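Bug #77: duplicate submission created two jobs. Keeping one. Sequence:
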Amino acid sequence: MTSADPLAPALPSPLAEVRDDRFSRHGVRLLLKRDDLIHPELIGNKWRKLVPNIEAARGRALVTFGGAYSNHLRATAAAGRLLGLPTVGVVRGDELAGRPLNPSLARCAADGMRLHFVARSAYRRKGEPETLAAILRAARAEGAYVVPEGGSNAEAVRGCAALGKELRDRAEVVAVACGTGGTLAGLAAGLAPGQRALGVPVLKGGFLEAEVRALQEGAFGARTGDWGLEERFHFGGYARTTPELDAFAMDFEDRHGVPVERLYVAKLLYALTALAEEGALPRGTTVAAVVTGRPFPDRGL
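Kept job's structure:
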């Protein structure tokens, strides 16, 4: 990409140590991989996953999927505005149609994204060819390039392998919060032998291991790299937080001057703090936490 490209990134993203006694007293070093600084509007893994898909679209309109507070929808809408590409967002929940838009969806609309709301039952079946075709017809998006929910497909996974390469030999453990699993799938593939990728799912359900494996098989032909999941820290599921998590995030911000996005990054950092306290990270371990997003001020996150 050239400097004139509106999607030009600042890469590699910074890697900085933070000194925190909750880690240091257990002999663990914490590094933050500041992917939130890659691009002002396509934050973190959204840039890494979206740009390969935009290149594959070759100028076609983009249609993609997400919930009412989807970071992925906002990033896709922003990319469409920056590049002059039409975008359509298929939003889970037809009960939202006709209501005032929340700040996240309002941002999408302001960036030119046309929103199409679908029933949750149909949304769950969007992976079925017939259901997908019906959704695209209803959304007047036939012929558009389909970016899956969260942006996770083979193109995105290969794009995220660069994240692992940037972190080669910098930490024994590299941890990332997971929604659809695409970032973890690529990250693990890019790391060097001897490094381990750890995913912290922000959704409950225990389905993500199979999803990550399938994404790696689609991108690389087989499961790749050393990776695993720590599934105890979803705090009730996607887009859910608790007073305890919010207090933790505010404390981390106060200690280190780093803005902490609540739905992904706070859960990741909380999980690593708990793992260090439990002794699950051996003394002498350096762990790098990937900061994949920034707080969305209009939601107070």
